[in-house]
Amino acid sequence: MAVKFSTQHEVVYYECDFNGRMTFPAMIAAAIKTSEDQSEALNRGADFVNKLGLTWILTNYQLQITRMPRVGEKLTISTMAMEYNKYFCYRHFWIADAQGNQLVLIESVFALMNIENRKMASVPEVVIAPYESEKVTRIRRYPKIEKVAAGQSQFYQVRVYDIDSNHHVNNAVYFNWLLDVLGMDFLTSHEPVSALIRYDKEIEYGVQVESRYDQVPVLNETGEALITTRHEIRVGAAVCCEANITWRKK
Question: With the C-alpha atoms ordered 218, 233, 139, 84, is the resulting torsion angle positive or negative?
């Protein structure tokens, strides 16, 4: 059984948007910090991995959202490295309120990258063993991300502080580009229900990215009318990130 690890987090105002709702980047950053704290507690932190010539990268997220955390809430963020195979590690995060109600479930896929050649590396047993994850042979499949059809787009310049210690755009920053194109009116009148995100290519400092999106009506399993926004982040002709986010009108 994999080792579960939990931390406490109080949502502060600068982690929230104009609705008083915790932003996706802040929520993802708080979740990732919990996994980093677990790795440090197991003596498998960034320094240990870097000495092997490796670094962690994220390839996929799947989020199920009951509601987004709000300013002032005290959260319990728990994580568990569930499974791994030769190249991928599957980690879950649970975010709960002070009463223990689950607000968000995040399923994520991590991989290891060789720092020098920037190529994916196999997962060494010495790195993964302390997490007590189940070793599997299968590659977990997530729902297909629907492509953007004829949509709208906006351009953004990659700034210095978009870059993290891996020398590429931090995964949480992509959410700013994905959501900003939707505009304040939409983000004020809708709340997220679920999201699928896949990272395809690294984005480096100084380039210009294009955030494209469209939206389609959908029905959930109970027949409720929802909206799915379909997104992609491009650098020139290269698609670097794709996402589908489903929303409920307030």
Answer: negative
Smallest CA-to-CA distance from 247 within 72, 67, 74, 87 is with: 67
Residue 79 region by backbone torsions, left for phi larger than 0, else alpha for psi between -120 and 50, else beta: beta
pTM, two decimals, is: 0.93
- According to DSSP, residue 245 is labeled E
At residue 189, the 3 state secondary structure works out as: helix
Using CA atoms, how far apart are residues 54 and 117, in angstroms rounded to an integer? 10
Cβ neighbours for 73, distance < 8 A, ≥ 6 positions apart: 10, 11, 97, 98
- What are the residues whose beta carbons fall under 8 Å from the beta carbon of 237, sequence distance 6 or more? none
* Closest by CA position to 162, among listed 199, 198, 205, 202: 205
> Helix 24-41 and helix 173-180: axis angle, to 10°?
160
Torsional class of 240: left (φ above 0), alpha (ψ -120 to 50), beta (otherwise)? alpha
Structure tokens at 214: 């469209």
pLDDT digits (tens, 9 = 90+) for 100-140: 999 999 999 999 999 999 899 999 999 999 999 999 998 88
**Which residues partner with 115 through β-bridges?**
none
Place of tokens 């690294």: 202
Those residues with Cβ within 8 angstroms of residue 83's Cβ, 6 or more apart along the chain or in another chain: 2, 89, 90, 133, 134, 135, 136, 140
The pLDDT tens digits of the residues spanning 42-100 come to 999 999 999 999 999 999 999 999 999 999 999 999 999 999 999 999 999 999 999 99
- Of 9, 26, 35, the C-alpha closest to 91 is 35
